[in-house]
Amino acid sequence: MARQPRISTRLSAANLVHLGAPRLADLLIEAGAGNANLKRRLRLELAAEAGPDLLALEIDKRITAVSVARTRVSWRKRGELIDDLNTHRNMILERLAPEVPGEALAVLIRWFDLYPGLAARVKDTKGELPAAFEAAAPDLFTLAETAGDEALRDLVDALRRRPQDYARWISSAGEALGPLTARRLLDGLDVSTRKTPAGRNLLRRLADRAGDLDLWLSLVTREQAGSPDVAADIARRLMEVGRTAEARAALEAALSPSPLNRRWTYGRDPTDGAPRLTPAWEAASIEVMDAEGHRQEAQDLRWRLFERDLSAPVLRDYLSRLADFDDVEALDQAFVHASTHPDFEAAMRLLMDWPAHREAAALVLARPREARQVRPASADWASRLAQRYPEAAEILTG
After folding, report:
1. Does residue 235 contact residue 243 with C-beta atoms inside 8 Å?
2. Selection from 337, 333, 229 nearest residue 278 by Cα
3. What is the number of domains present in the chain?
4. Same domain assignment for residues 70 and 210
5. Are 110 and 259 in the same domain?
6. 267 in helix, strand or coil?
7. Do 78 and 109 share a domain, yes or no?
8. Which residues pair with 122 in a beta bridge?
9. Residues near 342 by Cβ (< 8 Å), separated by ≥ 6?
């Protein structure tokens, strides 16, 4: 009697093949009877085998069913719904797009059209639904990269209908949206898109991806330009193309307190007080000073910012521009300044992360009352100092 081949019971594709197609089909039918998502997946696989037309029709049927549904989706059912959405998206990308990329793009756009209705009826305190659509954004724009003009018109129409959502998805897409496709999308949108804040934001995201700086600048409102962070962004972009004078003007637009930058101004009266300049604005100002040839003024500002904030990146930038041996003296001066800084935690963070453990231990011994205050980082500091500076470690944990 011939000996039967030994078959492992470990679940794997290679082992399940031994069951044979008929038995596997029976098992899938049995499993699908209690699993709606599996049943739909099996229909999609059968449709894909029949051809792209039937697959597109099957996906459209499911998209339509989800779009017309009005029942609330509980948190218990949310994961099942998102799995179903992702299954259909993957079938569009993996089975439909290789055969008919233009039709696949149109179907995927209809998939994205589901978002507003689902957002209104899915209980989603964790933000899993918007995360699923943001994760899909690179796939959408990767597909758009290969689309012809007719197929791309569907995407242009979608952008026009829902500029706020697509502005977010453009950001999520990252490098998947290339400059040429961004330009084609811009060319398809008309001037009416500029009439709403959401439309201008969409155009600005596209202009950014298209590398059209002047268009991007034209979409920044005067009030936005008065924000120090926005002014810094404008200045950095202008610096990248050598427009230093315009970069300086952009930074100065955020200096004068006025109703145009009242949200970033100290005090209740928008015409009084100095504007609250942000680290981004200060960093951009230093870059502009360097480009203008005011290198010593830039260095002086770096040092003042370090003295105020005890920022390690600012200090490293400052030291990197000093001559040999000057940087050693400046570093010693920086540590002396940190030892007397009123913000004990900021001083410890600088010294521990530099690392300058000897100076950190000396700071603890010199200011034990402040060192004993409970802080999230105290235990970590103590463990790092324990071997060489046990007294300081004990104070930190006391």
Report:
1. no
2. 229
3. 3
4. yes
5. no
6. coil
7. yes
8. 73
9. none
C-alpha 95/C-alpha 48 separation (Å) is 7
Same domain, 180 and 90: yes
Domain closes at, from 275, 293, 311: 293
Q: Which residues pair with 265 in a beta bridge?
A: 275
* Burial readout 78-88 (b: 16 or more C-beta within 10 A, e: otherwise): beebbebbebb
Q: How confident is the model at residue 34 (pLDDT cuts 50, 70, 90)?
A: low
- List all residues 6 or more positions away from 121 whose beta carbon is below 8 Å from its beta carbon: 69, 70, 71, 72, 73
Tell me how crowded residue 96 is: count the other CB atoms within 10 A of its CB.
Answer: 24
**pTM greater than the 0.85 cutoff:** no
Kindly report which listed range (14-18, 159-163, 327-331, 346-350) carries the lowest average pLDDT score.
14-18
CB-count burial class (<10 Å; 0-12, 13-18, 19+) for 205: buried
Residue 113 lies in a domain: yes
Task: Identify the domain containing residue 52 by its residue range.
Answer: 39-217
Q: Which one-letter amino acid corresponds to residue 281?
A: W
Q: Are 141 and 177 in contact (CB under 8 A)?
A: yes
| Contact criterion met (CB below 8 Å) for 286 and 302 | yes
Q: The tokens of 40 are what?
A: 């739909």
| Same domain? 60 vs 196 | yes
